[in-house]
Amino acid sequence: MSAGTPRSLPSSGQKPIQDICHPLSAEECALSRSPDVLNPCSAGERDLILPNGTPVDTSSPASSSSLLNRLQLDDDLDGETRDLFVTVDDPKKHVSTMETYITYRVCTKTTRTEFDLPEYSVRRRYQDFDWLRNKLEESQPTHLIPPLPEKFVMKGVVDRFSEEFVETRRKALDKFLKRVADHPVLSFNEHFNAFLSAKDLNKRQGLALLTKMGESVKYVTGGYKLRARPVEFAAMGDYLDVFTQKLGTIDRIAQRIIKEQSEFLMELREYGPVYSSWSSFEEDLHDPLEGVSGCVSNCSSALEELTEDMSEDFLPVLREYVLYIESMKNVLKKRDQVQAEYETKLEAVVFREDKKTPVPSDVEKCQDRVECFNADLKADWDRWQNNKRQDFRQLLTGMADKNIQYYEKCLAAWESLIPLLQDKQDAKGETN
Amino acid sequence: SARVMPTQERKLFSSTLFHKIFKAHTSLSLKKCKGCLYKISTSMVEKGTSLLKMMEISVAEAEKRTGKNAVNMQETYTVYLIETRPVDAASEGTNPVPDSLWRRYSEFELLRNYLLVTYPFSVVPPLPEKRAEFVWHKLSADNMDPDFVERRRVGLENFLLRVASHPDLSSDKIFYSFLTEENGWKETVFETGFQAKADSRLKALNATFRVKNPDKRFAEMKHYGDELQSVISQLLRVRARAADRLYGVYKVHGNYGRVFSEWSAIEKEMGDGLQSAGHHMDAYAASVDDILEEEEHYADQLKEYLFYADALRAVCRKHELTQYELEMAAQDLTSKKQQREELATGTIRTFSLKGMTSKLFGQETPEQREAKVKMLETQIEEGEELVKERNTECEEFVKSAWVDIERFKEQKDHDLREALISYAIMQISMCKKGIQVWNNAKECFSKM
């Protein structure tokens, strides 16, 4: 874990625009890339790759926990054979005359026939993920679409190119794609396919605009009033309301703890050195005092790691869920609208005609829509609840683990000090 | 009243305490209060010279009193119960009721001031602080606060034990009557006239600036005292701030307890795990109170040596004073001898008013000169006596003081080492508790 100023990523450097390869092309120009990039997913042969294609970064303990994260995500499918594996990694900064941005490598391994090739490696930027999500929302309105990490970042406050920020974002994007890939319906979506496999997501800007319009065209349902919300969907709404509230509270508590710990850390960083300066004018006590100073210093480093971990691993996941819930509430609203439309139209028909004429097809269509929506939503809800349970179990267990590790480091430091402190004591005892 | 534990239990500890003292040169004694360990060292106890060998001493209780003070105004103050008992009685197995009397803090101060003046070559043990300093926000700065009173009780007992085990101080009669005679003790102290013997601050300051050849060791010791005082002050200040922050960290975790409980209400399978994890978070938040209370004892141990630094400097200042007075006397003698020489040879090397006036207004008569010489001779004789006296004084002071300083150095090294060990043990205990709580919480989370 970095201890101070966040580090920036290697940049592609300033180049004339003609010389810069399109960042989204699968074959990257020979910049500062490692040779295995061109065969990114033949990595299966290497023993440091997980079954779902994720490369393992073993350089820090934090990543070994994210390793566990990925493993557990796999275990969730109850032995189901997975045939689609997606990962997001290798963030790189691209500098052009127009703008500077980050792209991520998206690796896919699959046996599905919907895909032309068994493996893909493309580069995508945040905009592209956003496009994908919009397309999914538009084309699968009855399903719960996983959230993306926050789009906008206040320029002055957060460094968009710092290693920590990019890594946090990368993890969230990885999780997003994995959730989509795990979904029995969404994973077969054509836009998802294109996202994973196409060299160029062409005219994505135009498409994005169209998407927004398309959405509003499809669901001009403003006027309809819902009679009675079915109990189970009302319960979902209530649950989400309370849950969001609790998540907000937990976020605030976690932030407060981080703040208090940071201030405690500040004091510790002043406290330790005082023992050092004391030792400088002591003889017998020199070593013990230096020892205490070193101990305090070790504890300080351990604490710093803890707060950094919590900032980077804990808070973002909470926020992600808050976004998730927001989008879910929107889906619930849409469902209400669809039901309202159906009820209104049905009422009109019932009042207008006698029972002998068949129900008009558009009303029938509405009924279908309602039933499909309800079915999809229920299935997604159950799956969401299950995933939520696992996610939070993992998140909170992770939090406990981090705290345990912190105390274990401190314990080791103080325990190793005791013999040093007692050392002279024994020697003295012997001479007496 | 602020009672720590039943008197029976305390007596048991007292026996343990004093039994150990008989043994080695340096020994550790333990006193238990409120479940914490407060280590008192009575090092370098020489058999046969220490009061502690004959008598058990403790400050058992503290009580609030109200009464009229010197200006006839109502005031509330705290008194401390000093219990003493002959050592033989305890070791025989019988448990007679100890003798006891009540004293207030100001009487302890009076005792100490008396000792400072009467034994200027001793590093006199310090009293616990008069007012609470280096407090962090949850710690009360109020002298009437029960926690403060309790810590003061322990500090006063420590003071008495240290004096009672000091090779020189322990045999003092005023000290003995402080422990045994409730009435009239104050008068007895004043009757010693010690206040008159005290050196004025101005005199001492003057000596510090003007002394020419102080013993190097004492100069170094004084410097050491300065540095020790400075570094311990800093340490205590930062520690107090850190304690404040640590308190905040632990307490905020208590909020998790509440929100987990609220959250568990809307969950089915996750509910139980969340709820029980929340309880562990509450326990974690609550644990900081004990942790910081124990740390306060560590702070008290440091404070003792903060104040000891002052006592050490006092001895060094006294040396400077005696050395200065010797130098002054020697200087005076030299000047008088020179004057005599001048009168004898008629040369004037030193300026004197008499010399100038006699030059201006004519020589004096042989009789006058004779008288002068005689007077000088007397003065020189007296001066030589004075120089001899002061020289002896100075030498003796240096000898006694250095012995006590060496004794103090060993005591300090021992005590502070012990304090650091107990501090490390405290930290270890805190870490272990933390690991346990979070492991408990983790178990609950994994069952979600």
TrEMBL record, chain A:
Pfam families: PX (PF00787). Residues 82-203 form the PX domain. Keywords: Protein transport, Transport. GO terms for molecular function: phosphatidylinositol binding. GO terms for cellular component: early endosome; phagophore assembly site. GO terms for biological process: autophagy of mitochondrion; endocytic recycling; piecemeal microautophagy of the nucleus; protein transport; reticulophagy. It comes from the Eukaryota. Belongs to the sorting nexin family. This is Sorting nexin-30.
Automatic annotation (TrEMBL), chain B:
Transmembrane segments: none annotated. Residues 58-186 form the PX domain. It comes from the Eukaryota. GO terms for biological process: positive regulation of autophagosome assembly; protein transport. It holds the Pfam family PX. GO terms for cellular component: early endosome membrane; plasma membrane; SNARE complex. Keywords: Protein transport, Transport. Belongs to the sorting nexin family. This is Sorting nexin 4.
